Amino acid sequence: MTGFRLSGHAGPREIVAFATGAIFGSGLLVSGMIDTRKVQGWLDFFGDWDPTLAFVLGGAVLPMVFVWRIAERRRVSVLGTPIPSRTPPKLDRALVIGSLMFGVGWGLAGLCPGPALASFAIGGWGGALFFLAMVSGMVMAPTVAGWLSSRTTS
Amino acid sequence: MIPQDWIWGTVGGLMIGAAAGLYLLVNGRILGASGILGGLVDGTGRDSMVERLAFLFGTLAVPPLLVPLYDKVDTRITSNPVVIIAAGLLVGIGTRLANGCTSGHGVCGISRLAPRGIAATALYLFAGAVSVLLFRQILGVI
């Protein structure tokens, strides 16, 4: 039943989303960023440092600099959705603690969410276990966020 | 690292940037892997469920088709399940608390000069470097 409902919704927006995922995931594979040891090599400033990730990040940021200029001028996307507005430059506790936690996990396994998805089919049991743990963490996140905000107010 | 790694790193990076650009200009969405997945996991992205699923399906299903072009594709992930579970939990909780990961805060945030994106990226790079220093160089567990 769900399948029918889903197929009924597949329009241009979903086709573009699929193409986006396909190019994104392929880019991660081509760049070598699904190789956890290469990612850990980039973070290993005191060992055998591997600068590849800087080229990947630079290559990804470059076209996006121009895309943001166009997007902010247009204000509305081709399919009519407003371009996301700028979030206020507020460095809250959740951003700081969350980013630090993410960084520790990223260094431990050499995987962040994008490559974890792109390498899911080829990552063996280790990749599947990481994915399961990551999704569990995402389920737990609102509870952890609740603890953080209750501490701030008390 | 061999120089070829820089070239393929740049090519792959340009593809990631092109994907993020397509998603922003056509769909009006930020390409953030943790946000797209996380919104499905915790139900906050219910209005855009099919769009999110379509993105995830492309990301999951298409890269394996490129594998035959390579001699060998290996994620070389650690075989220590405790490390994997701890890392996965930290990445899952952390990216949702911070509201973004390497793609959302890193690629999309830095290119917009978004203060939160730049701060998040500086923090997770710092924490990642400390993590590798501690667990690889000092404790030797990874």
Automatic annotation (TrEMBL), chain A:
Domain of life assignment: Bacteria
TM region positions: 15-34, 54-71, 91-109, 129-148
Protein name: YeeE/YedE family protein
Lineage: Bacteria, Pseudomonadati, Pseudomonadota, Alphaproteobacteria, Rhodobacterales
Keywords: Membrane, Transmembrane, Transmembrane helix
